[in-house]
User: Fold these one by one.
Assistant:
Number 1:
Amino acid sequence: MPLTLDSFDSARQMAVAFPEAASLASPSEVWHEASVCALIHYITDTHHAYLHAELPHLSQSLIQLARGQGEQNGLLCQLNRTFHLLKDELEEHLRQEEEAVFPTIIRFASCRSPAPSLIAMNITVVHELETDHRHLIALLRELRQVTKHYTPEPDSCRQYVQILRRLQCLEADLLEHLHLENDILIPRVVQKALN
Ligand SMILES: [Fe+2]
Ligand SMILES: [Fe+2]
């Protein structure tokens, strides 16, 4: 597939997958004006920091609840499984971004005449980012399905209701996070690579 800005236009796909996130499909003007470096620092300091704190917390709460309710609660087992798939994938994704992808993009963004090898490396990393993001969106969709759109049953316990609320906040934060990377950061890298 030829490398074009359109091939990275995931906002419409995201709006179709998550109609409730349609308002996020219009990239914020403020981040269009900011430097790539400032955007990356913002993503790391807010969205990555939130996930580093929230994923272990949610994991612990879900494991505790599953232990309390026993293996007979099929829905909880399924939720536990889907959440931990998402957690593992996200933690590996954050590690890759922080240790390899973001430093590579920052090096490229601050380079006036990047070497062809650095351009090629950046094209590869943004393609890999897009692939990872598609997997994460598929897992978010699965999580939404398993939790019936984060809707508790009338007899759901307080802990389960709290977990659903936190998962819904995680989804909203992750959609905004992916929106910044897919719709602002990646097109900026592609634009520079094409110039
Ligand atoms: Fe990220
Ligand atoms: Fe990402």
Number 2:
Amino acid sequence: MSETSASAVADPNTHAATADGTTAGAPGGVRRRDFIDIAALSAAGVGGLAVLYPLISQMAPSEDVLAESTTDVDVSAIEPGQAIKSVFRKQPLFIRRLTDAEIAEANSVPLSALRDPETLSDRTLEGHLSLLVTMGVCTHLGCVPLGVTEGENRGEFGGYFCPCHGSHYDVAGRIRKGPAPTNLVVPEYTFNTDTVIRVG
Ligand code: FES
């Protein structure tokens, strides 16, 4: 028995239809069967959304997580030549105030001498050339470089030194020697106030 003939016998809606397959009196000639199909699909759509909503709302970051996603740091106490270590998204964050001599040194390096060419201006906020904010994560294999705490080895270029495999970063956090492929990462940040930066 063909599918068409089976439908004609088994489907009571077909018996209620007029000769041209429409429901008698239905505006626009919509077949009752079509109407039931559309209604069923609409119900499934609403049901699907009802199921998805709690899932999506559970997946949305909580306020705690959103708060954790930014870090505010008061940089007012960092003297020229000093650096501090903070934490941003569970990773070390280095914030360093460069001396005038360090700024001059960073600006004297030709980009052609750099493995990952960036100027100090590229790596700092406009008007804040002396404040260098970078992740404290070596771009080779993720060790935490030395050079924040006074007396630590700052490497051959006076910035940061990663002892794991010997990567040397300069005063602008740019890779100058060793296996690290790129400069220390500068995260997104802005000045919240004159003295507080918001990272993230
Ligand atoms: S992880 Fe820093 S040099 Fe290898």
Number 3:
Amino acid sequence: MQLKQSPFLTNLQAQRFHKLIIGAALKDYKTIEDYACVFTHAGADVIDISAFPHSVISAKKGIEQAVIQDSNLIEPLIMISVNIGEDPHFRRIVLNEETCTECLACVPSCPSLAFGSLNAKDFSYNENLCFGCSACLPTCNFDALSFTNWNSFEPQSLNELKELGANAIEIHLNNDLQAFAEFYRSMETEFALESFCIGSGQMNASQLILAATRIIEEVERKHGPDKVFIIQCDGSPMSGAHDTNPEKDSPSIHSAQSILEFIAKNYPERKNIFVQLAGGIDEHSLAKAFARNVQVNGVAIGSYARKKLAELDSEEERIKIAKAMVQPLRESGRQTR
Ligand code: SF4
Ligand code: SF4
């Protein structure tokens, strides 16, 4: 099937780019397929998923399903998320069955229903539904829940994922910039769009600038000065805690502000570096950043979107809510300001 591909570059330039984050650790393939379908209807530029072959297959299936339903839709890019070292996006809850009393206290805390439906009478845990948000941890008084982190991703796996349909990549950096450089230099697979996630509550202001500098240097070293890429400024990862207080800024907006000032000062001629908000982001965050004169190029919405959609049964309703999340971003963009 020949699909029309997202005008992601135009939307980045017009400061109205939208990415849906389904979950860097999520292996719930039905959810990946469903959300990819719903957000293709909504007009997302990118669907960001875990770097597993079946995740890519499921996202592709969801996108194609949407286009069968409406042939005017465009195809979002499928972005795979990979990690360098430990990263909160790449962890999952492990249940200690020895200490779990099956008290059910954790059940309502999980936005992904990993412990079953809200009115479940019997306890169960499906680790494939866990995306590592940590909401369940404080609910357990029996020390039965803990995190396991994944190891770094192997760059050799990327070719297979590209062949299956992945056409964008996001690399989550931590403070080990040398490990990032080694990974990036060894990465032979080329993607239409590269994104680099920094922040995640693991970097202070000067570390953010050091990371941004290293990203810009490494991309230039590998691709020359014109390669389009995104620096994603992560605020409160997987919190779903969008700010309802209009006076309160997301940490992501503060990080983006310092990165944008740094780029304007040190790379004033460069038009290929784009900055995006993530972590605690909702449909109003872009307008909020612009109100502070933080000229970001778009947003990534993750846990907030998942929470809103999880409550809905019908696809029609989910598409309506997804559109209500993407459209305000389009209207906040440069064309209408
Ligand atoms: S709160 Fe803890 S002990 Fe209770 S069901 Fe959940 S994991 Fe088990
Ligand atoms: S609440 Fe978050 S961390 Fe806990 S099981 Fe659910 S998705 Fe995983």
